[in-house]
């Protein structure tokens, strides 16, 4: 009792869950008060990937442990996302045909997923505009339908 | 037979059929094929395209496909041989032959049912009259019938004498006719030469059907330019045909200056130019182009130290800084480029190069793409005879074909790079041949044999490259030699073709003179020589027959010494067994 | 949806052509076409028009809005107004691309038209991004995006919906009960 241990999240969650509260959880530094002020000052300059590649997901999980700071934590995470949103959108929609590694270096994994989605939209459009769009194929539904008809005929 | 109405007698016949296109491997044929393909696309004509590089390939391709097709279109092959005999075709097969090779085989000319020639008739074909060459078979039977009459009773003696008179008359007539026939045939078949570019013929067809596009016009320009680059037609003929095409060009491209109705920059424009005949200079540096163009390098004698000095003098005379001349033409100072053509021409005149500018055409589209017709020819030819990779001939053919469409610029640029390499190799080979006295004066003709192991010898195992090389070599040799008689001689050149099979490729070209009519007797000469050795003929490369022959070369040389020849030549290639 | 699929939809739109051949009316599932008479304008779907054009069988008449003056007006309007202005055609981008690529020689001042349409497109996309940002910032629940075309929606759609999904999850965190749900993700 009273010892500090580093446990994986899944284990801590398991131990915490069955109402016995055999442990209390200390928030990781990133989610603490001091960093929260940093995020509220300017979330754009923070290297989220370095601080923890799963900032949003992990932060959301931390809310499971009823800490008194929960409300503020949730608010910070949301605000961080909102303030970083514009930058992700702009960079992902404008970086065509260039090396994006510098742009995504400071993004957390969720943000990277978003960035990829934005890039896909842009790339699709650009390749269409240059006439390199892929051939469209009939929907699988239509194809299957036709196949079934054939097999029925065969029978 | 010659077709008069190409549209009715050719296009409307094949338009609802499946057609087999047999296309020879030269640039003009490629362009013709492109035009025809475009027409076929418009009307959804089904066709199969088979590239053929020689007689043998033509025969195998025909054998392979003859069951599936009734209509065959032969492009730049087939006119100068007896097609039906060579291909052993069925009765119902119909051949449309669009070919520049002359003379046209007379059987082809007078076959009314199966052979249809798509050939411009205003070329002076000098076809002998039918009666002079062919005789009905019946007459011979009649003759033999008379002979059996000889055993008849004496009561008819008088008639018999008359008969004899008649028969001897007939025989004499026949002998005379035979002799005359030989003479006529000899005159007709003696020289090989080329007629109007097939691409132009095909473009005329497209124009007739008002389906002519700017792209097609450009292809026919390239086809014509190919004939000029390969030295297949006379300067006169070139200028006349350029004139014809120029009318089409101005008809198609009149919208350029029109402000209200201006065309998109992406659309292709063709422009008539009076441009420098420096090879690839717009894609190279001016310096390298000057060094590697046969005309300039021969005039300067660039293989010697003096020649190099002369080139420097020339550049100094133009007032162009070396740094500018040696960098990419595209990056040269705009101010220098403005009057470049006039400047170069003026200086060239001082240095005795009077024909540095030629009438030609160029296209531009987009903001940066500009190509001269002759550069396209070099690029496409280089792609077709690419020896760098071990691709099959068909692959290279398709690549070359693709490089002609505007959407495949990367292939064209690849071709331009290959063409540069080829020109450099030619120039180096020419220089080394002249410096080491490899060109031998055999009396009636000049002769040069590239040894195995010569650098770039592999490049010259293809007909077009070797032809270009020999043309350049002859030109340079004429400038270097002091012997005046040498300047009027034709040239034979040989290079190893396939080391494993021990075959040699040979080419004969006409003398390089201003008045040359580009007619070639080497075809017949090669044939004769092969006949005199007991060797067996292997037809190849569409230009003339050729043989595997022991001691062939020696015999050929002896023979040529015997038959004095001063007249010009076409291309002949032949593999030679040593 | 892919851009080429949007293009496929755009190809159903009618355009006017002047054919140079004659053909009786043809009956297709999508509707009857023709009859075609040389020199007489006729309306056909864009896909057929381009096919015929590529085969040298017709001349295309550009749609009325494909005109430098009109497009300039549209561009100015788009720049001046904060909301999206209605476009002359729901497939203006696809039309411009297809017509300029395959029938540039039938369209006067094609290059200027290309630039104008692209300008308009860029303005609209910038506007779209701006409104997306303010939408996220103010944590609105819904927004109205009138007059957007399919192609425009298609380029930013996947990104925007994914971002909004994500934001929704973060927002549920705010509610006290939300923490229980968040286990699942």
From TrEMBL, chain A:
One of its GO terms (cellular component) is GINS complex. It is found in: Nucleus. Its main location: nucleus. Residues 32-129 form the GINS subunit domain. Pfam families: Sld5. It comes from the Eukaryota. GO terms for biological process: DNA replication. The keyword S-adenosyl-L-methionine does not apply. SUPFAM superfamilies: GINS helical bundle-like (SSF158573). InterPro entries: GINS_A, GINS_bundle-like_dom_sf, GINS_Psf3, GINS_Psf3_sf. The keyword Transmembrane helix does not apply. Keywords: DNA replication, Nucleus. Component of the GINS complex. Required for correct functioning of the GINS complex, a complex that plays an essential role in the initiation of DNA replication, and progression of DNA replication forks. GINS complex is a core component of CDC45-MCM-GINS (CMG) helicase, the molecular machine that unwinds template DNA during replication, and around which the replisome is built. Belongs to the GINS3/PSF3 family. This is DNA replication complex GINS protein PSF3.
UniProtKB/TrEMBL annotation, chain B:
It holds the Pfam family CDC45. The keyword Zinc-finger applies. Residues 11-53 form the SWIM-type domain. It comes from the Eukaryota. One of its GO terms (molecular function) is zinc ion binding. Its main location: nucleus. Belongs to the CDC45 family. PANTHER family: CDC45-RELATED PROTEIN, CELL DIVISION CONTROL PROTEIN 45 HOMOLOG. This is Cell division cycle 45.
From TrEMBL, chain C:
GO terms for cellular component: CMG complex; GINS complex. Keywords: DNA replication, Nucleus. Its main location: nucleus. InterPro entries: GINS_A, GINS_bundle-like_dom_sf, GINS_Psf2, PSF2_N. The keyword Nucleus applies. It is found in: Nucleus. Pfam families: PSF2_N, Sld5. SUPFAM superfamilies: GINS helical bundle-like, PriA/YqbF domain. GO terms for biological process: DNA replication; double-strand break repair via break-induced replication. It comes from the Eukaryota. Component of the GINS complex. This is DNA replication complex GINS protein PSF2. It comes from Anolis carolinensis.
